[in-house]
Amino acid sequence: GIGELYPAAFRGWLKNDVMWVNSLVDRIVSEPLEPAGAVAEPYALWAIEDQPGLVLPCAHVNVRPVPSLEPVETLKLFILNLGHTYLVSRWLADKGAARHEFVRDMLADPAAAADLQELYAREVVPGFAAHDRKDDAETYIQTTRDRFRNPFLDHKLADIAQNHTEKVERRIGAYLAWARNADAAFSAPRLE
Predict the structure, then answer these.
(1) Res 187 pLDDT > 70
(2) pTM of the predicted model, to two decimals?
């Protein structure tokens, strides 16, 4: 196999000495900087699933061991990412309205901002409430709305629109299944 290509000592080190962990990064990155780098928002979280013997790669307030990634992942995927996908759906329905190039433009539009807030309140928070996580969701929604409004982050709707059909399934379809796992009668007409 491929492992035979590497020296035995290296294979032994990988197998016996390297700890493989699950992690998740929550940070919006809007564009590359050349020759190496990226424009990113100030908000950042690197959640690392804790396990015996874990040594964090560095000490930083935004690098946090967590007992499980599920609570972090569901907030990011079903609030931030779902919100992006919902805004892009509106933008695509409006045929990529020229007045809305960036996410912040959508949040500066009173109708779009109110629609997103209503969607969160009526269709997203109830799903989190079914999982006994209403307060977590409401707090993260406020943070997310502030992140979406960042005037220094050129987060293009056209970029988010890439692979839109797949994102709808991963973000919205998966959210609906997750919410119905806790409440079989859960209904979210706009997301459906």
Answers:
(1) yes
(2) 0.91
